[in-house]
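In practice, a research group might receive sequence data for several interacting partners and want a quick structural hypothesis before committing to experiments. The following worked case mirrors that situation: the sequences arrive first, and a predicted assembly follows.
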Amino acid sequence: MSTGVLGTDKRGIRELGAEEKVGWDEVTRGVVLNSFDGEALDIAHKKAEERDYSDFNSYVATVASWRIIKPVFNRDICIDCQNCWVWCPDTSIISRDKQMLGIDYDHCKGCGVCVEVCPTNPKSLLMFSEAKENEDALEEWPEKEKKTK
Amino acid sequence: MAITSIKNLKEFSTNNDRFEGSHLLCPGCAHSMIVRELMNCTDDNLVIASNTGCLEVSTAVYPYTSWDTSWIHIGFENAATAASCAESMYKARKRKGTLKDNDAPVKFVAFGGDGSTYDIGFQWLSGAMERGHDFTYICLDNENYANTGGQRSSATPIGANTSTAQAGSHSYGKKQKKKDIVAIMAAHGAPYVAQLAPNKWKSMAKGFQKALETEGPCFINTVSACTTEWKFDPKDTIHITDLATDTLMFPIYEIIDGHELNILYRPKNILKVEDYLGAQGRYRHLFKPENKHVIERIQSDIDKNWEMLQRREEARI
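A structural hypothesis for the assembly, expressed as C-alpha cells:
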C-alpha cells in the first residue's frame, strides 16, 4: 500500500480484479454503484482528500502495474503552468491552489503525455524506468539545453 | 456560480476533478482529457449518459465506477434519449416541487463515440435534437469502432486502413468520405453546434461552457486521437491533435442557431496534410506511389472545406 502525495489510507489498496467481488445479484439498489458513502452533494467543491469515496469508486483502485516507464517530477524547475494537469488523461497530476504537487502513481499509466507538453528547459517532468528510484532519477537530471541557431 | 473560471490554466486547475483515475482507457487516450475538461468547466451537478463505446466500457468496469456524478449506462444508440428523458423528468419534478433540492442547478450531458453518433445512434440523436431538450451531446470522434477492434465507421476518413476496410494490393483503405456531422446537426437548427479539439484547451472549455449555458440541444464534435487504432505512440496524443488542427483536417469552429459560423482557431502556418497522415500508422500505405492520388484528394477536400468555412463565416447566413 502506498500513501503517495495525498497521504490518505483509502488509496492504492487494490489491483483491479484482484479483490473479492460482490456478486452482480448482491449489489444493493438495483444496479447502482454509489461513488461515495453517504451524501454526495456539492462534490465539485470538495478536494479529493476531503471526499468520502466508496469501495466502488475507481479512485480506491490502482492501475500502477500497467506502467513500465514512469514520469518523475522535478519541483526545482517547474513553473506551475499546469499544462500537465489539463492534459493528463488519468487524473494523475496532483495540483492544489495553482501549485503542482506531484504525480499520483496509483493512477498513472505512464503514457508520457505530461512530459511532452511540459514547456520548461530542461523539462520538469521526464520519463524513467519504473525500477529506478525517484531520488536517483532527480540526480541524473539533464542540464539546460542551449539554443542552437 | 455555475461555470468556473477559464481565464488561464492556473485558475482552471483549481477545480476539483470529478472524473477519477484507474479507469481502463488506454494510456494516452484523448477521451478522458475531453471528459475531464467538460467536468471541470462547470461546478453544477451533472447528469451524464454514455453510449456504449470505449468511454463507457472502460469507466464502469464492475465493481468500479470512475464517475463522481450521476451517470447512466445505456445501450449503444440511446444516450441522447436517456439524457433527454432525464431532463424531461427533472423539469416535470421541478414544476411539481418534488425534488430533494429544487434550486440546485443540474446540467444534462450525453457522451457518444463516433460509431454511436454518426451511425448507430444517429436516429436517436436526431430525434432528441428535434424535440429540443435542454442537453449537450458530445461526440468523442476517434474515427472508428475502437472498442470492438477498429472497424470502419462513417466517421472514418477516406484512405484510412481499418480492420473492415483494409489497405492492400487491391484497396487503399476506406473509399468513402467522412460524414459532415457538424453540418447535419446545425441543419437541425440547434442553438449551438461546434467542432473542438483538446489541444486547444481554452477554446474547448469555452465551447463546453457555451453549450452548457445555452438552453436547448447543443452538439459538440470533439477530436479524440486514438493511440491504438490510429497507431501512434501514446505520448504523442497532443502532438497528433496539434497536427490535426494545423493541417485543417479538423478545423475548429462553431455554428450558432444553425447559420452564424465562427472559426475559433486559424493556424498561423497551415501544414500540408502529409505531416498529419505520415505521423500515423493507419495512413502508412498512402505514401506508396500508386496511392498518391488519395493524398491529393484528401488535400483538395481539406482546401475546399476550409474555403467553404471561411466564406460561410463572412456571409453570416
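Before designing any experiment, note the following. The two ends of chain B are 34 Å apart (CA to CA). The first strand of chain B starts at residue 45 and ends at 50.
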